[in-house]
Amino acid sequence: MTRAGDETELTISGLVVRPIAVVPERPAETAAGVMASTPLVLIDLQTREGIVGCSYVRCYTPLALAATARLAEDLAEIVIGARLDPDGLQATLQARFRLLGLQGLVTIAIAGVEMAAWDAKAKAHRVSLTELLGGEPRPIPAYASLRTMGPGAAAEEAGEAVARGFGGVKLKLGGGTLADDLDAIRAVRGAIGPRTELMVDYNQSLSVDEAVHRVRALDAKGLTWIEEPTRADDYAGHARIAARSRTPIALGENWWGLHDMEKSVAARASDHATLDVMRLGGVRGWLTAASLAARAGLPASSHTFPELSVQLLALTPTGHRLEYLDHAGAILTEPIRTAGGLAYPPDRPGSGLEWDEAAVRRWAVS
Asked: Which of these is catalytic: 121, 272, 303, 327?
């Protein structure tokens, strides 16, 4: 007989994988181009006992949506019949892909299954993910990540964020010249006032030499951090930039697992860590990265996935800020709640994800 709350008695019976493409009211503008839609893959991990674990992953471009969904579906033959054990599942899946390598779509698909397994395990215990992992849920300071880049539009969006109570905003830069950057910063600062935190993100758009030139010009702008000024995996280049910048440098959303993070920390490539639960391999990857950030003395903030991030930051010793950039809210029955500059964890078991099936059907991709 299955004992309620005992995940060791649960057995995985299936994976339901659904690709969708949400079209937001404001497209996300970056130095790499405009993202007019948000391609997501929803994963429902089913158990024989009726508990379903939910997760979603992002593949950024519609070109990768079908491939990501197909790869996640193909993992079903490995996990069906297995005991519900998130760490064991992750180890099994990673072993099967060792020769191919654990980056890109492989990591995304494995992370999706792992996150769904943790959701199911927390539901089996009737506790939140934070509580399952030994922590206490709490509100987390949050900043709004702006979708627009032009001075006028970004200033308008930033003003809206401050009116909603956010104590900080992040502006995307790098689509033009340094003069364009300064114009956008000036406009946004005028909209949010001198006391609201302002971060900027170049999305890897500059050469190292150009980044050194620009960060020096930005040092007098009172920025909280400058994110990914050059190619994400150029840790030596980021170290050069960080050494020449008085403004902290942030890096981490493109770390594919702990090995990338270890290389970055060893190079002293950044002053802040921005953790992405999907790219780090899932919940366990985040927790390991959080421990490394603590040992390195790096403040750790989140990159997207606010529903899981609000729970995992409560377990992060150097937890700093939650990035609020709502990708999945349109297909959730209860999107993450923010108020007074804080993001609030869900008041229900698991990771807090529950699909709005009508919205999922609306944005479904066949």
From this structure: 303
